[in-house]
Amino acid sequence: MYRQLLRCKIHRATVTESNLEYEGSMTIDEVLMDSAGILPYELVMVSNLNNGERFSTYALPGTRGKGEVILNGPTARKGVTGDMVIIFCYEFFNEDEAKRHVPKVIQVDERNAIRPSNPV
Prior knowledge:
Elements: E1 2-14, E2 17-19, E3 25-29, H1 30-36, E4 43-48, E5 54-62, E6 69-72, E7 84-94, H2 95-100, E8 104-107
Parallel strand pairs: 1-8, 2-6, 3-5
Antiparallel strand pairs: 1-7, 3-6, 4-5, 4-7
C-alpha cells in the first residue's frame, strides 16, 4: 500500500504578481524551488491565506534570488499581489517510507527570502 504524504512546502510566501495574460501555471523563485525540491512543471497545490482559495497548478522556475511568486493565467484569479500563500507538494510513499518521512518545510520572509532557520 502507498500513502500520499506532504513531501515539502513553501510556507507563507507572498504573491509578487498576478499575470492573467500568461498561459497558466505559477512562477516560483528558482532558489525556493531548489530548496524545497520542486521540479519545473511539477504539480503543486496552493492555499491562499488571504481569501481561502485552494488550487492546483504546475511550477515554473522564476529568476533566481528575485523572490518571485507569480500567479499566471487562470490562477491569477485566485489571488492578488501581496496575498500570502502556502505551496505544497505531495508524494506517494510505501508503508516503511511513510513511517520515517519528515516533510521539508521552507519558511520565507515578506520578500520570499528563506528565513535563516531553514537549511538550504
